[in-house]
Each structure stands twice: as C-alpha cells, then as structure tokens.
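S.,

Sequence below, as promised.
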Amino acid sequence: MPSAKHPYFAARIGLATIHCKERAIAAPFRRVLGAEIVVAAGDTDQFGTFSGEIARPDALIETCLMKAELAFGSLDVDCALASEGSYGPIDRVPLVPGGVEIMAFVDRRRGIRLVETLATHRTNWRLFRFKAGDPTLRSTVAALGFPEFGLFVISSTDPSRPVKDLSTLDDVVAAVDSEAGRSQDGEAIVIADMRAHRNPTRMRVLRALGWKLAKRLERLCSKCGAPGFGAVGNRRGLPCEACGQPTDWVAFEIDGCSVCGHAEARPRRDRRAAAPQSWCPSCRAR
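The prediction came back faster than expected:
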C-alpha cells in the first residue's frame, strides 16, 4: 500500500501521450505511490513517429525529456512523464529484433529529472517488402498478429505518406498494391506498428517500465528526502578469485540522489565477491 506520507501521494502527474499509454502506466503509479496519472493535451507525434515521416528532434533520452515537458503546457501540475521507444534489428544479432524503452520523469518544483530504461526482446517488430499482388502477403500479415497488432504500409522510395490504422486484410492488400504502384522499385514496405495502442506486446513492456520507475520514485534520499534515490552508476575492479588483483568486473553499484548528489555504494545484486580467474588480466599475462 502506498504511504500517505510520500511526497507523491495523491499527486497529479501529467503524461504526454496520444497513444493511450496511461493504460500501462497509471496502475503502477497508483499502486506504488498513490499518484494519479492525467493525460495531457498536445501532439506527441511532433517528437517523431514510428512510421518514419517525422524524425526525432534529438537523441532518444533528450527527446523523451522534451516530450515530458510538453505536459506542463496544458496541465496545472508539478510533475510530468513521457516514454519513447526504439525497435529494430539488434546490431550483433541482425536476424533477431529487439528494442529499448525510455521513460522520463520531471518534477519541476523539486528539480528532479529521472530517466529509466528497459531493454527487451519481447517484440513483434518485423519489416517485409512486397510487390503488388504478392500471394504470401495475407499469411505474412496474419503471422504479425494483425489485426490485433497494427501495421504500416509504406512506399519503399517515398516514406512521407505511410498508410496507418488499417483494419482488415483487404485494406492491407489494397494499401500494398497502391504503395507498390507509386514506388520507383515497385515495392511496398509492411512494418509492424509499434505505437502503444496498436501493439499489446509493447504495452506490456511499458507497464513493466512503469513499475520500475514508480519503484525508483518510491525511494527517498536518506540525506534530503527527495524521491527517486536509485542506481546512478557502478565501480569496476572486482578482485580475481585466484590472485586478488582487480578485474573489469563490477565491484559494487552506486545509488544516488538527483537533487542533492548524495550517493551510497551497495554490493552487487548477485553478492559475488570475486571474479573468475579466466577474466583476470593479471593471471592471463603470466
């Protein structure tokens, strides 16, 4: 049960979204903090779209913080949050898709700006190319989870006019034929719609990240009492199990406060006290 003494108990927190992310985020903030999530007015697509016609104005974290600030323009609140996601092939495993979710929280009265991240392999992100009349289109689209999971259809040479919010297979076929017809190479791109309200798997990832951020905000700094005391870094140098010399393994983790700068070291989560000898540069050099 949330504590009535917590700074965010009964607080109204603005959420910048046009894609129903409150369905994922409201419950964690209510159950952990006793806070109410209020959806802010404003077009968050100005900060970039998954369909590609609008690029992000900055890097992922900076864009997410800008999006959170948008909530202050339409709501009388001191706190706001937003999320931003990126999905696609993994660099080192290009045939396996993955993603990362960012969630930013801003408390302008206390001067708190926090960002939590969550990497995931839980995604239906896929990208396919089709020519008009391709007989495999319907089965491929069904395998993406359509229509429960949305998708975009985009001309392979002109991404400025993506076709969104399709509801039937016939609509998809018509969109592919149309976009392939106006493409210079005769192909249309079909890509999974990663907008939260059209993607149940992404909505579950956002819910998990909402819990992570709410639990972070639940912790108060032991020095100044500000919410959000949590992980800010680590220190490497875990000693080798054989010779005791420092290695590149993490020795301990550091929690800190974004307001007063107070920091505390804590042991590794796995409580490991030594690194394997095979990872020790001193032992390998012998």
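The helical segments are 22-33, 60-70, 137-143, 169-181, 200-218, 281-284.

Coffee later?
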